[in-house]
Amino acid sequence: MTSIPADVGSRDGSRGAEGTTPAAPPARRRRRTLSSSQWAAVGFAAPLLVYLVLFYAYPLWRNIDLSVHDYTIRAFVQGDAEFVGLQNYVEVFGSSTFPTALWNTFVFTFGSIAFQFTIGLALAVFFRSSFRLSNTLRAMFLVPWLLPLIVSASTWAWMLNSENGIVNSVITAFGGEQINWLTSPDTALISVTIANIWLGIPFNLVILYSGLQNIPGEVYEAASLDGAGAWRQFWSITFPLLRPVSAITILLGLIYTLKVVDVIWVMTTGGPGDASTTLAIWSYREAFGTGQPDFSPAAAVGNLLIVIALVFGFLHLRLQNRQEATS
Amino acid sequence: MTERKVWWKTALGVVFTALMLFPVYWMVNVSFTQTRDLRADPPHWFPWDPTFEGYEAVFAQQLPALGTSLLVGLGSVVLTVVIAAPAGYALALLHLRGGRTLNFLLLVAQMIPAVVMAMGFYAVYNNLGLLNTIPGLIVADSTIAVPFGVLLFTAFMSGIPREMLQAARVDGAGAWRTFRSIVIPMSRNSILTVSLFAFLWAWSDFIFASTLNRNGDLIPITLSIYNYIGNNTTQWNAIMATAVVASVPAAILLVVAQRYVAAGVTAGAVKD
């Protein structure tokens, strides 16, 4: 759908350009009707513009402001924080938490995406051929995605509980050893990643499934007439034709996963130590997670996170534009 | 033979779904488990001897939190639709100048991590005295849905036939009249989709609730569950009962409005 607004935008842009060349009479006529409705357009968009300035731009500006001052709680109340320039950023980069958080963010994000995507794609292909109950079962797959994150996260926390969790009791029943999923530094990050993979499967399934619907059935029919088996069909037809949708799914997944706070915070609060601390968790913990809020470094980490998210975001937009150009 | 293959697929599908939904089943199961059985080894796979203690606790303690979440969710829905629908109209049908830039800004807005927004809002609300207030939380929660809403409305409204709008103009209807009598009624489905997501996101929000409303008198259900876990780690049946109750809106929406859910998910990512 994002193709459509971009389309409208480009049409709009070209019209604006025409309007500046007075030599073309049709364009001028068009411009006259346009400018009469342009006031209405601005009027209808005005609430959004005001909203974006007040509730996006202003908080973001305040966030940058926080990151270049030294805000303590006292300074926060009195509003006399000292300007320190980029010192907070320097401290963040120099902190011992920084490499850990960066690595954890990397593992958490890419681990989540790899499995969510693979499982989501496998399920999408599975559900593609309709069978009895296929629609109902596919709908039920949405459930984890619709539950409040805190609900899923606390359920997983209890399932992975060392002494009383169902996961460990299954493992020990098969002769394995009890694993301290959430309290051991070796497994905490894996545990939250597993929960996050589970949460992301429905999103991947739905998008990839709708992508599959756009591949015409005749292509498969032709392939099976030529004697291509299911495996061959997947690698020669499904995978290449699904590549544009896959790319967008993965990039959106990256952008969403970078931001994740709730799941990790509820399950491990980023611990033990920094074992499951990602950049988002680090930022949240500095600002809100302890008794002593430290807004300035938290804002610096947050701004760093924005930069990373934007890099992937622009990649996404470029991909989408290129797709529109080719289709 | 095809008959048998199809049957086999259904069986496999049921197994996959059961595996996927196991955590949800487990949440329900634990919510009915007696407190003394919570630490049983092996755990009780089915609540043969169900207790409603957990649910009694929910209804005794959590009603204000549920009410707060409902209020915040509905407030967020109203704010989102009131802001996003006219903007969608301006972008899709009135050819707003600078529309391309605006679209781009909305896409970027969706990429900003909530934790960053939470800090910014905290600083702003701290000055305005909006911390720990319901309106403050409604505004913060609506920021999750507004960019999505505008993009969705723009996409849907672009599909409204131009002839209808021209006919309205010939009849002397202005932009506002056209919006009210033609665009809004025709956008019923997209309004439902946007409302549904705005509600679910606000209902599920934890980050804004735990930062902007942590000391409020009225806290939403997500924060209430979180505090519950912190205060009393032994009563997992009550925690899970609260979790089950907090999931009810999602369950209802899935049953009643499944096709809007699927429409919203795909609209967010894939071009038609």
Describe the protein in words.
The complex is a heterodimer of chains A (327) and B (272). Chain A is built from 16 helices and two strands. The longest helix of chain A has 43 residues. Chain A is 77% helix and 1% strand. Chain A has two domains: 65 residues, no CATH class; 239 residues, Orthogonal Bundle (MetI-like fold). With 327 residues, chain A is mostly helical. Chain A has a two-stranded antiparallel ribbon with strand order 1-2. The N terminus of chain A is likely disordered. Chain B is mostly helical and 272 residues long. Chain B has a single domain, classed as MetI-like fold (Orthogonal Bundle). In chain B, 76% of the residues lie in helices and 0% in strands. At the A-B interface, helix 1, helix 2, helix 5, helix 6 and helix 7 of A face helix 1, helix 3, helix 4, helix 5 and helix 6 of B.
State the oligomer. heterodimer
Question: Tell me, what's the shape of chain A?
Answer: globular
How many domains is the backbone of chain A divided into? 2
Q: Tell how many strands the DSSP assignment of chain A holds.
A: 2
Question: How many angstroms does the end-to-end distance of chain B come to?
Answer: 36 Å
The most extensive interface between chains reads: A-B, 113 and 111 residues
CATH fold description of chain B? MetI-like fold
Number of strands of chain B: 0
Residues in helices of chain A, as a percent range? over 70%
- DSSP summary: helix tally of chain B: 13
